[in-house]
Model the fold of this input.
Amino acid sequence: MNIISVNTYWTLWLLVHLLLAVALLGALTHQAVSATMPVRKVAGPGGFVTRFRAVPAAGYATAVCILWVLTFLVGAYIYTKYRIYIRIPLEQATYWKTQGFFDFKEHVAAVCLLLLPAYWFFWKNAQNPEYDAPRRMVTVFLALACWFLFIVGHVLNNSRGSHHEHGYGRHQSQAAHIIVGIFDQVPDLRRHVLDRRSRDLPDSLVHELAGLHLASGDKSFGVGTGGRPERRGGQT
Amino acid sequence: MTWYGWVLTALLSAAVLGFLATLLPERIAKRIPLNLVWVLAWLAIPFFAWDLRQWWFHP
Done:
């Protein structure tokens, strides 16, 4: 029973991963700021920063643990799709640093997963001053790691390309260019092939074919057998 | 298991080591600095960067 396409299915899981990550990022950032710069006394209404750090940090601990595990599990599930349909074309396209950053992301996420029991213990015993320093440092580590994982995941997701974000790779924002430049000058891999006619494909380079592979689920572009590109939208 | 090998191995090993650590007598456990929790995590970062050098320096 095909209710949704395969691409939609994986996109939904990716969105779930993203939403969980956003919730985790918010919780950890609040908690880390609150742990490093606690509000001792509020005289009158505080500003934005004061309110940002004046959260009951201990109350976030269980939620952070659950969110981290859920985000990790969903990430591990969609990794199976990434491993075949994204990583292989990235390797074929010789984007080594991009690949390295994703491996780095996996490693950091795993280390943080293993830190969670200690993190939870420190926060559940927040009244014990002996745990103040390690609790603060572990929380800051988790928060920084979460930001790293989030940014790397976002940039790597961009390497697959998206119509909404790139408009066939023609209108990448300046910010996206800067971030992509930092990581490995990862372009929307599809843009190499979107303007090609099928008769030109034999001349395509390996990385361009990899881009076509990434775009294989894209209904707006297909390789015709009669030498005429099949594309909606009428762009040439 | 091929794809999740590193993570699962670390998870299982850490679980076993963690369980064994709970069996340590308190007088020994008290001697282990708590700050090792975050110090080791930070030290793991440069190690990972070195371990993944094949990607950074790939020709």
